[in-house]
Design goal:
single chain, 183 residues, alpha+beta, DUF1415 domain-containing protein
Length: 183
């Protein structure tokens, strides 16, 4: 353990640069890191209504700031339990639809204990969606569509990532994630 706590935003930036970009988990992230078009926002999710309001505020921010391609809402407090996280994620997705953002923005989800349905808890594949802190990734669908249109065989990305995670191994992946949290 380190002497001082690791900032959730600093850990998330490091995760994006060293893991997401470093292992090409998302082949489009490197461009956005280079352009400095990723917004990082710390959200205390101990009050679900407040967290959902912050999500809407980020939609409005993206509406008003086309130079920002995407926002990572780092849910630094209140959602350590994966099931609680999934419950609030469901509400967040429904809120986007209710507020007319379906087709404009989508949420990708990340959590330190992320587990794909049907996967073993310790399966390396889960690390494609494991992050230092619970997180909602608010993406512009138009930007995602543009990126996918210029990427050869985007349907192969999940399988390629599964193979990469398997090659890296669960122990190495878990140690890397723990190090980002300062553990």
């Amino acid at each position: 353990m380190t002497d001082s706590p690791v900032s959730p935003l600093d850990a998330t930036r490091a995760w994006v640069e060293t893991f997401v970009v470093g292992h090409e988990v998302c082949p489009f992230a490197g461009r956005e890191v280079a352009r400095d078009s990723i917004r990082y926002v710390d959200v205390d999710a101990t009050d679900p209504a407040t967290a959902l309001m912050r999500l809407m505020e980020e939609c409005w921010h993206l509406d008003d700031h086309p130079e920002t391609e995407t926002t990572l809402l780092v849910l630094s407090e209140g959602l350590a339990d994966f099931d609680d996280y999934l419950d609030l994620l469901g509400l967040a997705e429904a809120l986007l639809v209710e507020q007319g953002y379906e087709g404009g923005y989508q949420l990708a989800s990340f959590h330190p204990d992320y587990q794909f349905d049907g996967e073993a808890e310790d399966a390396p594949r889960n690390f494609t969606n494991r992050s230092p802190w619970p997180m909602w990734h608010l993406l512009r669908e138009a930007g995602l569509e543009r990126a996918l249109a210029h990427y050869p065989d985007p349907e192969a990305i999940p399988e390629r990532n599964r193979e990469r995670m398997q090659a890296l191994g669960r122990e190495r992946l878990a140690a890397s994630l723990a190090a980002l949290r300062g553990e």
